[in-house]
Design brief:
This protein is α/β, with parallel strands linked by helices and 230 residues long. It is built from seven helices and six strands, in the order E-H-H-E-H-E-H-E-H-H-E-E-H. The chain has one domain: Decaprenyl diphosphate synthase-like (Undecaprenyl pyrophosphate synthetase, 3-Layer(aba) Sandwich). Strands 3-4-2-1-5-6 form a six-stranded parallel beta sheet, sandwiched between helices. The protein binds 3-methylbut-3-enyl trihydrogen diphosphate (2 copies) and magnesium ion (MG). The site of one 3-methylbut-3-enyl trihydrogen diphosphate has 11 residues, from strand 2.
């Protein structure tokens, strides 16, 4: 196993909450509740493993197409999770940040996100990045529009565009994990995933645990990253 390889950023597409619930005869929103427990386990495990950045895809720009009750349930969960866990996350010195078109979210949630990011901004341990109302295409378009507003003139380089992304200082994901057996990116980190390694597991997100994270990380360390070189 090559242990000198860098692993700065693990990104997870948390998928399969609905199917997890369905397989138990429960409403979909119960799957999302169970998914929060998996988030807590995973954040703890990432911290123990000393992973500097963990990003979680929580709500995509396409997820508004879901039934209203489910969307409301998910928004309720963000509120509940951030309000009730903030103290604990502060104790753990986890820095919380958010990526996405946040201004389109309900006003009180925007306020909670701002407060959470502000309260935890000095922490230097693991950074937990929650992607909410996030879409890779939207992020790139937002960056282009911000560039135009700022009066940037061409030619636009990768470095210029990078500066206008939601979290320009966050390194690209080294490893992207997707649960539930789906083999697609679903508009996650489009710009940043150019050279990411992928790991897929059939497990539904609510069943994901520390061992699954260890398996994914172990698999990552077995790989050879070539970046186009011979
Ligand atoms: C992932 O689980 C959570 C979100 C997208 C918010 P899903 O809700 O997509 O679960 P499945 O894919 O329908 O099983
Ligand atoms: C991707 O899951 C988005 C999140 C995990 C938040 P989806 O379940 O929405 O993706 P598709 O529809 O299967 O591609
Ligand atoms: Mg899904």
């Amino acid at each position: 196993m090559e242990t000198t390889k860098k692993l700065e950023h693990v990104a997870i597409i948390m998928d399969g909450n609905g199917r997890w619930a369905k397989s138990r005869g429960l409403p979909r929103v119960m799957g999302h509740h169970a998914g929060v427990k998996a988030v807590e386990r995973t954040v703890r495990a990432a911290k123990e493993l000393g992973i500097p950045y963990l990003s979680l895809y929580a709500f995509s720009t396409e997820n508004w197409k879901r039934p209203r009750g489910e969307v409301l349930g998910l928004m309720g969960l963000f509120r509940y999770y951030l309000r009730s866990k903030l103290e604990e996350l502060c104790k753990e010195e986890v820095r919380l940040r958010f990526a996405g078109e946040l201004t389109a979210l309900p006003e009180d949630i925007v306020a909670i996100l701002d407060e959470t990011a502000e309260k935890t901004k000095e922490f230097r341990g693991t950074q937990l990045i929650t992607c909410v109302n996030y879409g890779g295409r939207r992020e790139i378009l937002d960056a282009v529009n911000k560039m135009l507003t700022a009066g940037e003139t061409g030619p636009v380089t990768e470095e210029t565009l990078q500066k206008y992304l939601y979290l320009p200082d966050v390194p690209d994901p080294d490893l992207i994990i997707r649960t539930s057996g789906e083999l697609r990116l679903s508009n996650f980190w489009l710009w940043q995933s150019a050279y990411s390694e992928y790991y897929f597991t059939d497990k539904y997100w609510p069943d994901f645990d520390k061992q699954d994270l260890l398996d994914a990380v172990g698999d990552y360390y077995e790989r050879e990253r070539r970046y186009g070189k011979a």
